[in-house]
Design goal:
Helices cover about 20% and strands about 25% of the residues. The protein has about 130 residues and is α+β, with helices and mostly antiparallel strands. The protein has a single domain, classed as Vaccinia Virus protein VP39 (Rossmann fold). Strands 1-2-4-3 form a four-stranded mixed beta sheet. The longest helix is centred in the N-terminal third of the chain and has 11 residues. The two termini are about 25 Å apart. The structure holds S-adenosylmethionine. S-adenosylmethionine binds next to loops.
Amino acid sequence: MSGPYDLVVDSGCFHHLPPHRRVSYLALLDRVLAPGGHLALTSFAAGERGMGSERTDAELYRERELQGGLAHTPASLRWVFSDLVEVELRRMREEPPESALFGVPFLWTALFRRGAAASGDVRPVHDRA
Ligand SMILES: C[S@@+](CC[C@H](N)C(=O)[O-])C[C@H]1O[C@@H](n2cnc3c(N)ncnc32)[C@H](O)[C@@H]1O
């Protein structure tokens, strides 16, 4: 995968990554997402009508088990993707079974945008203090 791509879509992958894999995930995103490009993301949602494990990172490593996927909060997603600009972050709208559209209530759906500067001019998304 080389890119650059104007749109990267992650439909239900990110929440399956253990916390330490977010570093390589963000490095890949940094390599392939074009300046001004968008990341569209769906992720398990923590809380009421959510899905996924709400264990702390320490508990996950102690138990060595991802519990099928990790629930995120808006704050945890904003922290992970803090070098991108948030365009929208909300619960997915539920669609009835007969709908031609996909819509389940236990996911966040988010759109982030990368700053428009040339990629060599911006701090890599994974390079945080
Ligand atoms: C909930 S399914 C979503 C499938 C599909 N993207 C969709 O939207 O219907 C999660 C997907 O993430 C993939 N996945 C899990 N861990 C992954 C990883 N480390 N790298 C790449 N894909 C992964 C799984 O193989 C699975 O297909």
